[in-house]
Amino acid sequence: MLYPLTFETIFKDKIWGGQKIKTVLGKDFSPLPNCGETWEISGVAGNISVVAEGPLKGKSLQELLEQYKEELVGKHVYERFGNEFPLLVKFIDANDDLSIQVHPDDKLAKERHNSFGKTEMWYILEADQGATLNSGFNREVTKEEYVKAVADNTLMDILNIEKVEAGDVFFLPAGRVHYIGKGILLAEIQQTSDITYRIYDFDRTDDKGQKRELHTELAVDAINYQHYDHYKTQYDQQPNHSVNAVTSDYFVTNVLNFDQEVLHDYTHLDSFVILVCVGGSLTVETGEGYRIPLKMGQCALLPASTKQVTLVPDGDMTVLESYVP
User: Fold this and answer.
1) Which parts of the sequence belong to the Phosphomannose isomerase type I catalytic domain (predicted)?
2) Does 120 belong to an annotated binding site?
3) The whole model's pTM is what?
């Protein structure tokens, strides 16, 4: 029988990684000196999540999907994605600026890589004073202007830079140029894809003196050059309410900020639900008697067959609730 699932953390060594995965999120079992990312729920080939607790401990997400199908993910989700889990959840610790990059959309990713594209969102858990990130351009830019800016090393002049603080949300559809700046710890929810076109990496070298590969030509046709008035997602943080932050074709994400017990009913959904704890701690309880404790930096996957859960906060808690619409 299915129940709310937690998974073993997958740790990723990154040239720009730091210590906050250990010190802030409490994942002090990380084997890496500079952990830049953890993958918490993943169906990406070569990085498939494995169940951490309960009767299904040791089973991979892929095995569960093949065995339980729509009972795990929902009828319409299984019809749409088959035995491919559609979302990937990460935590990212930027101890230095990440590369300036872009991700292709579904059409381009299918043509070039036989993969899904990558639309994603960020929720800022913590940001050092003055920390910034890039989302999109600061004015209308033509393809020709962009190519010239890359060649002239003036790309930074046309990027939209945003100051950030804890609780900020950014939605990044495929095609949007972006980078995460130094001093930011965030949660990322995205399509299941590992396709990234690196445009500029600040001339960094690794421990062997090698620069990382760039994909400047591949990026040109993947970019959406349109300028937008607002890049930061506007949402009302209301205590003891579920507030919608992102609605897209690939995922819906609500922000739950509660200090009192709440019953969540998912009878109307035909999808799994992912809970990502981004502040405080809580216990997820089901009618069948399962109790899953979660603290900041931990996630749970509620199967589509789980129709009701009670969230019991330990003081204040903030949780991202995501599902496939």
Assistant:
1) 8-115
2) yes
3) 0.95
